[in-house]
Amino acid sequence: MSTVTLSLDDCHSMARLALQGQGFSEDQANAIADTITAAERDGCTSHGLFRVPFYVNALGNPGTDAKAVPVLSHPAPALVRVDAATGFCPLALKVGLPALTEKAYEQGIAALAINNAYNIAALWPEVEHLAENGLVAMAFTAANAFVAPAGGTKPIYGTNPMAFAWPRGDQPPLVFDQASSVSARGEIQLHLRDGKPIPEGWAIDANGQPTTDPEAALAGAQLPFGGHKGASIALMVELLAGALIGDLFSFESTERDVQKTGAPFGGEFLLAIDPAKFGNGNLESRQAHAEQLFAAILEQPGTRLPGDRRRKARLSTRTEGITIPTALHTQLAGYRSN
Ligand code: NDP
Q1: Count of alpha carbons within 13 Å of 91, Cβ hemisphere only?
Q2: 176 CA from centroid of ligand 1 (Å)
Q3: At what angle do helices 89-107 and 26-41 cross, to 10 degrees?
Q4: Domain assignment of residue 78, given as a range
Q5: Dist. CA 120 → ligand 1 center (Å)
């Protein structure tokens, strides 16, 4: 496959100009480009420049607003809400995260609901940001109906990711961010693009039979990780990011996607906890306690902490840049000049 190498600055400009060329406001395009560049920087290709066409395709749905201005409100002392106004999640997060951080410091615990947003991104950037500010953080979002419930054959749940971050003082936070399906959907789309079969156990076809064909998998249903256990996590995510904050379930997002753009629309739910506010022992001793756990894990050969792969990738992409397929580069350059 022919490829093009870009610096991270070039990556950001490419995403921003492609989006602005397709009618996104400067603020929306900048926020999305930040998210896409962070994904490329950390080697998360399936949420990098590959996603730009998904953002653009989302505009095919009636009512999608590429120039939306998110609206911040304060429903309760520890609650923040951002109405993304049928725009995109990255800008809504930019508006909501400072207020969430402030409330978590004040109240000890705070939650942020983002409503009416297209969320096509990974969740680790927002929980990592909160943990860099000393907070324990969790984030949840539903998607479109891609995943069959345990024992079922038809999609109901989204790939419903959840992310968690733990602050580590002078060290980078511990962060995990995982889909509740065996694989993220973007990974299957990348296998399809690259003409590769998917591993066994990721998906079933439209007849409910196991498949390694990415096209049949995308037409059928993805499987939750760990059978009924992953399915229950997906169910919890639907309830937190849907029913709790007054937003859509994944199957409702699919029904709303009349133009079949594949862009998930709905809510994101975030929790932030200030560990300094718990009184049992000082903060330093509790953080040192966590470090003992991490050290015990890492003593075992073959282990690593979640987030380590991303941070390693970060070290090399800053100097070596990123590589994308020439076809994607050409497509995004075309968006820019349209
Ligand atoms: P992975 O299975 O690749 O990784 C999940 C987590 O496990 C990561 O934090 C990863 O850390 C960690 N991990 C992986 N291997 C190990 C290991 N051997 N030891 C310790 N930790 C490990 O991710 P998924 O495919 O489940 O999800 C990919 C992304 O897709 C997520 O960022 C998610 O938010 C996003 N997504 C977004 C959706 C949306 O609609 N917005 C829907 C579904 C997914 P590391 O990063 O360091 O490898």
Answers
A1: 24
A2: 7
A3: 80
A4: 64-181+224-296+299-305
A5: 14
